[in-house]
Amino acid sequence: MTPATPRTLTDTAVDTASVIELLERGRTLATPMLRAAVARLAPPMDSVAAYHFGWIDAQGNPARGDGGKAVRPALALLSAEAAGAEPATGVPGAVAVELVHNFSLLHDDLMDGDEQRRHRDTVWKVHGPAQAILVGDALFALAGEVLLELGTAEAARATRRLTLATRKLIDGQAQDISYEHREKVTVAECLEMEGNKTGALLACATSIGAVLGGADEATADALEAYGHHLGLAFQAVDDLLGIWGDPSATGKLPWSDLRQRKKSLPVVAALAGGGPAAERLGELLAADAAKSQREFEDFSEEEFATRAGLIEEAGGREWTSQEARRRHATALAALDGVDMPDRVREQFAALADFVVVREG
Amino acid sequence: MTPATPRTLTDTAVDTASVIELLERGRTLATPMLRAAVARLAPPMDSVAAYHFGWIDAQGNPARGDGGKAVRPALALLSAEAAGAEPATGVPGAVAVELVHNFSLLHDDLMDGDEQRRHRDTVWKVHGPAQAILVGDALFALAGEVLLELGTAEAARATRRLTLATRKLIDGQAQDISYEHREKVTVAECLEMEGNKTGALLACATSIGAVLGGADEATADALEAYGHHLGLAFQAVDDLLGIWGDPSATGKLPWSDLRQRKKSLPVVAALAGGGPAAERLGELLAADAAKSQREFEDFSEEEFATRAGLIEEAGGREWTSQEARRRHATALAALDGVDMPDRVREQFAALADFVVVREG
Asked: What's in the keyword line of the UniProt record (chains A, B) (predicted)?
């Protein structure tokens, strides 16, 4: 039960079997309660939500869709164990976090005009904008409901943390939208946005089980710190995959984020680095920004490859890759002060490794 | 402190001075905390929310806009007094309910495509759909935040009740949207929808101060019953004003709800009544439903007046007016079992009277 000796990603091979088991446990324990919560919604919101979660197709037939990696439920259960409680203690927390996560996906996809999510048409595309708004709202309300009906002081603390995380999520989306219209975004601004959009809810997932299990505030804060940095590591890797990911693994088009003119971490880090490649990149992106969406979409593969090459030459790819490793190390270090079973600590480490080395 | 003798609206003149004082007190005590909560939002969401509340105009200059009647904050403060607590005990409840109410206005206006609210352009019209979604979400999250940061068991109970009320609000909006596309809506369905859309949050406002003041569940339930029926009385009067209201008092066009082809209570009650006027009305409305929005908007005043006349002839106006009085009486009767100071009971009665006799 002593803090583990400092380790880095390069010390170990990722324990993939352990991670798969952990993700599977989260899915298996949380899904029945998640489905029961969604079934409380009045028609047609219950079906719209079931479509979003991939449980039915657009025609209402049962489906076995891709419900995402389910990192958050796995973290919530592990979080309960970190506080010495049973994994089951974390289940309402896992469900509440998943409800908030999916509330934000429903609304973000509509705001961003994204037509695809997990290889399927998004809810606003299939069921219209009003259903995307309504069902998102309903999932957010359900999150508070499943926690507060526990009726305990711990549940109230957990709900408060979840509410604060949700506000950060919303702040992050507001920043993401405002950055789209700005010429220049700094690395610090990009990291703040990603901390809000991805870090805050992963942080909450990592503390919520422990809070429900009666952990004190200091323990909850340390677990949140792990989740926050893990979220930033996750996002850095996502940003790398968004440009250089293998389409067969990511399910996205090559240079996906460049096609969306996203000011992601590799881009802002490249521009911040200075030098001739950064200058040339800055000129190209400024010209791109002035183009209409249609003109821009007609770019050849080569034009995107040129931009990706300049980002790499200016050091944006390497910086982001290093950033993922730094955040990975900081996440693990945050757990040093928390007393928890060695097995649980190892699983937190395995999850962190998985997040950083994944390819899709 | 004994239950008052049964009274009906016709027994008394409405104590308007007392109601104005009550509404003013609610506004005065709740607004500073509401403004402080909204000020927590990151830019530009703080300004968008301030515009929605009427505190600034579209250019960002200070404004003294119409923030609505503020019935809910007045009820929340009175609710605290009903439990023997100070009015101030109800303030976080008043603020949370106002935040949820305005979250729903922001989203509903966008879903319904409504361009005007309180004589001003709606948020989605001025700041775009994304801001209406985002700021609505943020206000909903803030509601939980201001309650749960009290850190008491009472606050957790209050948040749970507010969350359940919010889900009903969302159910009501879902029903409202689905009824638009249906040929026939029954009186029962219309009342269910109005109970969800208007009753649930007024019910929560009427119990939340008492819950924060430590009232037991039975007292909170009785207060909610008053608020629920008051909400239905309020909505019945709103539906009457929506057709026959004086435009100079309502600030809306004449026959406003008919222009929107709303299946409001007078309409569905008229159709349910049967007889030649109901039949003729049914034929006209079926033909109206087949028209495009533009064709329909080109109707002359006379065509709307014909429809309003048929609704009245078929008994829809009288039924709705009686319904308002029935709900008014049921609301007051719900308070009979609750032990509270006579002055507080009289103020609940005066508010109920005001809701039913108002003209705008």
From this structure: Magnesium, Metal-binding, Transferase
